[in-house]
Specification:
This protein has a single domain (2-281), classed as Deoxyribonuclease I, Chain A, CATH 3.60.10. The radius of gyration is 18 Å and the shape is globular. Helix 4 packs parallel to helix 5 (217-229). It is an alpha+beta fold. The protein has helices spanning 2-16, 74-82, 97-105, 185-201, 217-229, and strands spanning 28-30, 33-35, 42-45, 59-65, 87-94, 110-119, 125-133, 139-144, 157-164, 171-178, 206-211, 233-234, 239-240, 244-245, 248-249, 251-256, 259-265, 276-281.
Length: 283
């Protein structure tokens, strides 16, 4: 078994040599995938008319890789999981009719979507990450991975959104990452370090969550070293069914300036990843 695992990792790393950097490049085409121009990366869904305050003493978040909504139970599970949450941090968002309609049914949330790439074979449907809240983000920005996934040559995306917290001047910064996957630890480190540089500059509380694709010991150690180095703490789960690959956990949530009141990662059939549900507060 160890030999098979070693061969698999070696094969994936050999493939990663095909990945290359296109720093800040727009209008890039790779086969059937197209990377949008910088001005076309961000989209908004559900522009809400009435905003709901996020109270610093306690609020709940969902972090979930949704597998593009491909599972039969996705919509039912999404509706269940989003109920009672103030913030949704979502990966593998796909602008299919099914998913956009699902978002429109959660009318209390405004979604900010960052496009990783568009599929030219599917009417330019977009893949990426989305963060939603019951108020409109005060500021949104993104980082495209410097390196690309092997073979398909697509980037991964990190999205940053800021929200007002009721009664205090400090804003909440939310980082949402779907980390680059089948590449070397050096290329993985580049993406995490880029995000960490931005996160470290924020003066208020911060959440950084998503699918980190930490399926090797090296990548897990790299993530831990970078995040603890800028003062973040990893959320620990009392119920922990987070997805694993080669025995390593892929999904994580890191916080700074926040207390974890509860954290669970229960089993849900609506994706190939199980969701993370966390209650947080400043006090």
């Amino acid at each position: 078994m160890k030999k098979i695992t070693s061969l698999l990792v070696s094969f994936l790393l050999i493939l990663s040599l095909g990945a290359f950097a296109v720093n800040g490049q727009s209008d890039y085409r790779s086969g059937k995938y197209e990377i949008p121009a910088d001005s076309d990366v961000l989209l908004d869904f559900n522009i809400i008319e009435e905003e709901v305050a996020i109270y610093p003493m306690g609020f709940s978040i969902l972090v979930w890789n949704m597998f593009k909504g491909a599972k039969v139970n996705w919509l039912k599970d999404f509706q269940d999981l989003s109920n009672g949450k103030e913030i949704l941090i979502l990966q593998e968002v796909f602008t299919s009719k099914k998913m956009i309609q699902g978002f429109s049914e959660t009318k209390d949330f405004n979604y900010v979507f960052a496009t990783s790439f568009m599929d030219t074979s599917l009417q330019m449907k977009r893949n990426g990450v989305a963060t939603a809240a019951k108020q409109i983000s005060k500021k949104s920005s993104w980082q495209r991975s410097f390196y690309r996934e092997p073979v398909i040559k697509t980037p991964k995306m990190t999205l940053f959104t800021k929200y007002k917290l009721a009664g205090i001047e400090e804003e909440l910064l939310v980082g949402n990452i779907h980390a680059i996957n089948f590449v070397s630890n050096k290329k993985f480190k580049h993406m995490i370090a880029d995000a960490a540089q931005l996160l470290a500059k924020h003066k208020g509380p911060v959440i950084f969550g998503g699918d980190f694709n930490t399926w090797t010991k090296k990548k897990t150690r790299t993530m831990n070293r970078i995040m603890t180095g800028i003062g973040f703490k990893a959320v620990q789960f009392s119920v922990d069914f987070r997805k694993k690959f080669l025995g390593k956990t892929l999904d994580h949530i890191w916080v700074k300036g926040l207390n974890v009141k509860s954290a669970v990662a229960p089993v849900y059939p609506g994706s190939d990843h199980n969701p993370m549900e966390v209650s947080l507060g400043l006090f």
